[in-house]
Amino acid sequence: MIRIGTSGWRYPEWRDDFYRGVPQRLWLSHLAQHVRTIEINSSFYHPQPASNYRKWVAETPPDFVFAVKGPKQITHVQRLRHVEDPLKTFADSLALGTKQGPILWQLPPSLRFDRATIQDFLAALPQGRHALEPRHESFRTDAYFDLLRAHNVAHVVSDAPTFPCIEAVTADFAYLRLHGHDELYISSYDDEQLDEWAGKIRGWDRDTYVYFDNTMHGAAPHNALALAQRLDTPIRSHM
């Protein structure tokens, strides 16, 4: 099972291209007719009420799946330490039902690998699929990979020009974020780059979630469709 989508959907930059002629209130349902998954980003910045999650569920096809970005309060403010209470509050707010996919934990670039901190954080995670995206070179170590494998947590393979791309698969599923290879959040992936990533995804041979985060100039949805075609995955769900 390979699901390919975008990181978020609320982008005014897409208005005159991918969303041409589509009212803003229908942007999510429009995108969800073309991709099989989307990352919810707003949960990173502010707590989202359960009513928002239920609304997004209602606007997407039955076989759709959301990844959810964990709160920055946990990753950036508390830096993974003493997070049992905010973890529970966040988990209790989710109301995605069968449409809930992995929870993404994006770490700040300044956070270095510390075995005890990561071990305690992984042990505190609620049930479900989780993916960890470090942005510091110190995470390129077997000690980190071994911890993830022990908890069946996916290391996020991230392609970007400003932080390391550490290619490792550590769980029974894989998680890939494509932020723009040359310009962060901007540059489009060309045919050669998409072919290369398609080959890597085939080689992982497991459930895989792929999100294009090169959103600022509108490349993300087009790249998602192009990669889906290369991997012969459905590019359109049905309401």
From TrEMBL:
InterPro entries: DUF72, UPF0759_sf. It comes from the Bacteria. This is DUF72 domain-containing protein. The lineage of its organism: Bacteria, Bacillati, Actinomycetota, Actinomycetes, Pseudonocardiales.
